[in-house]
Amino acid sequence: MVFLLQQSKHLVHIRLSCAYMRALCDIIKLGVCLLITTLQILESCSAVVDGNNDDTVLHIGGIFPIGGKGGWQGGQACEPAASLALDDVNNRKDLLTGFTLKLHWNDSECEPGLGASVMYNLLYNKPQKLMLLAGCSTVCTTVAEAAKMWNLVVLCYGASSPALSDRNRFPTLFRTHPSATVHNPTRIKLMEKFGWSRVAILQQAEEVFISTVEDLEARCKESGIEIVTRQSFLSDPTDAVRNLWRQDARIIVGLFYVVAARRVLCEMYKQHLYGKSYVWFFIGWYEDNWFEVNLEKEEVGCTKEQMRIAAEGHLTTEALMWNQNNQKTVSGKTSEDFRLRLNEVLRQAGYDIDNMRYPEGYQEAPLAYDAVWAVALAFNKTMERLHKHGKSLKNFTYTDKETADDIYSAINSTQFLGVSGYVAFSSQGDRIALTQIEQMINGTYVKLGYYDTQSDNLTWLSKERWSGGKVPQDRTIVRQVLRTVSLPLFICMWTISCIGIMAAIALIVFNIWYRHRRVIQSSHPVCNTIMLLGVCTCLWSVFLLGLDGQFVSPHVYPVVCQARAWLLCIGFTLAYGAMFSKVWRVHRLTTKAKSEVKKVEPWKLYLMVTGFLLVDLVILLTWQLYDPLQRRIEVFPLEDPLSTEDDIKIRPELEHCESENNNVWLGVMYGYKGLVLVFGLFLAYETRSIKVKQINDSRYVGMSIYNVVVLCLITAPVTMVIASQQDASFAFVALAVIFCCFLSMALIFVPKVIEVIRHPRDKAESKYNHDVGMTKEDEERYQKLVAENEELQKLISAKEEKIRLIKIRLQERDALRGGLTDGRLPPGTTPQQDSTANTGLTANKDTLIVADFITGEGTSDSAFGGGVSVYTRSSRASQSDFEFSESYL
Ligand code: ABU
Fold first, then answer.
1. Which of 175, 394, 577, 738 could form a disulfide with 609 if both were Cys (CB 3.0 to 4.6 A apart)?
2. Kindly report the CA angle at 82 between 76 and 88, in degrees rounded to 5?
3. Is the pLDDT of residue 381 over 90?
4. pLDDT at 468
5. Per-position b or e across 728-764, b if 16+ CB within 10 A of its CB
6. Do residues 266 and 237 make contact, with C-beta atoms less than 8 angstroms apart?
7. pLDDT for the residue numbered 772
8. Would you give the DSSP letter of residue 459?
9. Whether residue 181 has its Cβ less than 6 Å from ligand 1
10. Which residues have a Cβ under 8 Å from the Cβ of 77 and sit 6 or more positions away?
C-alpha cells in the first residue's frame, strides 16, 4: 500500500513536471512568434524607411570595383560620383516624377567571379532591380553576358573592352565608357604624324587588351604600319620586355592595367627601354601619379625616382571623360561644379585631393555620374511609355521581356549633355567620344592635343618634347657601308702595275729591235713578245681587281667582274703559255733522237700557246654565256658607328664577283690552270740543267715557271680564305701578279739586256752563248782543263827557269869562250834548233789557250746524244752566275 501510495505520488509529480514543461514550451513559442513578428515589423518599418517596399522607389543594382589588388579599382571614385548623381536625379522634380531612384551596390574587386556573386545577390534578393550598373571590363563581360537571362539592361560606366561591342554576345549592354578601340585611330594618327611605320605591342593577357590589339593590328595593316612584335604577359612582364629589346622595338604600344603598368615601367627601367630612343604609348586612364604609388605594396622593385625616369616622355591616349567646355549639363551643373563636389566628397572620404592624390577611377567618375543620369532619363522615358499602356516600371519582373525591351529602347535613344561630354550610344551600345593625347614632361602629364575620330580632325598644341631633341626613330637606322679597297693601296698597286706595263712595252720594243742579235734570236723572240703581252694583260687586270663600288656603279660591276676574269686568264695563258712552250720544247729536244730533232720549229710553240688560249676561250665563253659573273653582296654583322650620338648601326657590305655555280666554274678553271702549272713545273725541273743553243734562256724560263707555280699555288687558296677582307685580298692578288710579272721579265730579259749593253756587237755574244751553254759535265771538264793548265803553267815556269839558268850558264860559258870563239855557235847547234825550242814552248802555251777557248761552234759533242750542239762552260762565265742558278734550282 505504501508502495502504491509512493508510486502514485511519483506519477502526480511527473505529470506536474510535464505540464510545467508544456507551459514553458508554449511561452517560448509565443516569445519566438513575438520576436519574429517584431522583426517583421521592424523589417517592414526599415523597408518603409529605406523605401524598398515603397511603390515610389525604383531599384537598380551597382557593381563597383574598389578593394581589389589588380585590374581597375575605379569604383573608388565612381561610386561616390554615382551617389552624387543619384542625389541630383532624386532632387529633380521633373524627372521620375513621384519616384526616387535607389542604388544597391557591392564591391567586385574587378574580379569576374566576385562580380558574378555580387550580381546574383542583387538579383536574388529583393527588391526587384530594374537595371545593373557595372565597372571593369572583366566584370562587365561576365555580368552583361548573364544579365540578358534576367531581361536586365546593363550599363557599364567603366568598361573599355572592345569585346563588349559584340551585340550578339551582349544584347542588353550599354556603356558610357568609350571602347578602347577609340584610342587606336588616335595612335595611328600619331604614328603617321611622327613618321613611325614600325611599332611593337606589349599587352596584358586580358580579353579587354587582346580585343584592343586585334583592332589595332587591323588598323595598322590598313595604314601600312608594320607590327614588329606582339608580346603578352600574365603578371610578370620581364621576358616580354626583353623580347621587345631583342626585336629592336622603338615605338611600343602598352596595354595593361595600372598594377601591371608599374611592373612594366620598372622593367623598362631595368632593361633600358626608355629615353631618347624609345616612345611608349600607355593607356591614358591611369591616375596622374600612377607610376610612383603602391611601389612597395606591389613589390615593384624600382624606386620612385627610377620609375619617374622611365616614365618620362611617354605618350598617353584617352577618350575625353570630362566635358571640356564648361557648359551646363543635363543636371544643371557644369563639369567643373561636378568636379568640386566630387573632390569634396572624396576629401571627406579621406583622400588627399589637395595634393593631387586622387583615388582610382577619378578620371571615369563623370562616366559613372552620367551613367546614373542615363538610367534616370531612360526610366523616365519608359515610365511615360508604360503609363500610356497602363503599366508601371514597378511591376517589372525578370521575366517581363516587354518592359525590358522598352527600357532597352529608351536607353538606346537617350542623348544628353553630361559632365563627361555629349552622351549618346551607337548601335553597338558604345559611347562616341573625342580622344586626348598627353605626354609626360618633367613628371607631369601635358596635353598635346585632341583627335576627333569621326571628322579625322587632329588638334595639335605642339607641346611635345623629346629627350634626344628630335623625334625618336621607329627602328635602328642601318646604314649600309660598302667596304672598298683602300685608295692609297689601289693607287700604289696601280702605279707599280703601270711601271710593269711600261717595262713590258719597253722590253717588247727591245725584243723586236734586237731580234737579229743571237742572244735574242736564240731565245725565241716571238715567244718573248707573247710572254710580255701576257705580262701587260695580267698587270692591267690588277687595275680591274681594285675597281670596286667606289668607282663603278652596281650595274657596271658585273662587266668589271667579267673583264677581270678574261684579262687574268688570257694574260696568264699568254705569259705562262709562252714560257711553258719553251721548256716543253727544251724537254722535247733533249728527249728526241738526234735524227728526229734538227731544229726547233717555231710554229709548234705558237700552236701550243694558241691551244691554251682556245681552251681558255671555251671555258670563259661557256662561263659567261651560261652563268655569268654577277655582283653579289656579302653582308657583315652590324657595327656601332664611330659617333655614339648617332642612333644608327653600320652594316658593312662587300662586293664579290660570283656566278650561280661559282665553285663549279672556279673548279674547272683552277683544275685546268693547275694542270698546266704542274706540268710546266715538271718540265722546268726535268730541264733544269739542260741548255740548248736554240733556246738559250730555258733555265731562266724554268726559274720563272717555278716562281709562277709557287705563287699561284699559294695565292689561289689564300685569296679564297681572305676574300672577306677586301684590302688584304686585293693586295695579295695584286702583289702576286706583280711579283710574277716582274720576276719573269727580269729573269728572261735582264741577262739579254746586259749582254746587249755590254757587247753592242753581235760577235761578242758567243761568250754569252758559252755561258749559257755550260752544263755540269762541261764544267767538270773545264775545271780539269784549268787544273791541267795550271800544272802545265807551273811546269813551263820551271822549264823556263831551267832554260834561263842554262842560258845564263851558256852565256857564261860563251863569255868564257868569248875569247876563244867569238860569235860562233856551240858545236852541233844550229840557229834553227834554237828557234824551235822557243817555238815549242810557245806552241805548248797555245795549246793551253786553245783548251781555254774551246768553242761550241766547232765541237759537236755527243754527250746528249741527239746532235745537239752542247757548249762547255766558258772560263769567262762568272762563278756567281753558276752559284745563283744552281742554288735556285
Ligand atoms: N577606364 C577604365 C577601364 C577599365 C576596364 O576596361 O576594365
1. 577
2. 145
3. yes
4. 84
5. ebbbbbbebbbbbbbbbbbbbbebbeebbeebeeeee
6. no
7. 46
8. E
9. no
10. 342, 346, 358, 359, 360, 361, 362, 364, 365, 368
Indicate the SS3 state at residue 198: strand
Q: Taking residues 561-565, what's their average pLDDT?
A: 94
Q: State the pLDDT at residue 833.
A: 43
Separation of alpha carbons 30 and 557, rounded Å: 113
Instruction: Return the minimum-mean-pLDDT range out of 82-91, 394-403, 565-574, 855-864.
Output: 855-864
Is 362 a pocket residue for ligand 1 (Cβ < 6 Å)?
Answer: no
Beta bridge partners of 179: none
Reference 47, options 102, 119, 106; nearest CA is 102
CB 364 within 8 A of CB 133: no
Amino acid in position 128: Q
Where b means 16+ CB within 10 Å and e means fewer, 406-424 reads bbbebbeebeebbbbbebe
CA of 328 to the centre of ligand 1 (A): 27
Q: Is the CB of 72 under 6 A from ligand 1?
A: yes
Q: How far is 106 from 75, CA to CA, in rounded Å?
A: 10
Counting from 1 in the atom list of ligand 1, the atom nearest the Cα of 74 is 2
What whole-number distance in Å separates Cα of residue 114 and Cα of residue 630?
Answer: 70
Cα angle vertex 740, ends 738, 744, to 5°?
Answer: 120
Query: Ligand 1: which atom is nearest the Cα of residue 161?
Result: 6
Q: How many alpha carbons lie under 13 Å from residue 769 in its C-beta half-sphere?
A: 24
Q: How far apart are CA 513 and CA 769, in angstroms?
A: 20
Residue 546 Cβ inside 6 Å of ligand 1? The answer reads no
**Other C-beta atoms within 10 Å of 17: how many?**
10
Probe residue for ligand 1, chosen from 108, 208, 290, 436 as the CB with the greatest number of ligand atoms within 8 Å: 208
Pick the atom of ligand 1 nearest to 110's CA. Answer: 7
If one residue of 109, 137, 207, 318 were mutated to test the ligand 1 pocket, choosing by the most ligand atoms within 8 A of its CB, it would be 137
What number is the average pLDDT over the span 799-825?
76
In the reported structure, the alpha carbon of residue 159 is separated from the centroid of ligand 1 by a whole-number distance in angstroms of 4
767/796: higher pLDDT? 796
Distance from residue 406's CA to the centre of ligand 1 (Å): 28
Give the span between the Cα atoms of 483 and 728, in whole angstroms: 12
Atom in ligand 1 nearest the alpha carbon of residue 159: 6
**Matching residue, cell 667579267:** 562
Q: Which of 82-96, 774-788, 793-807 has the lowest mean pLDDT?
A: 774-788
**How big is the chain by its Cα radius of gyration, in Å?**
57
Contact (Cβ atoms closer than 8 angstroms) between residue 410 and residue 378: yes
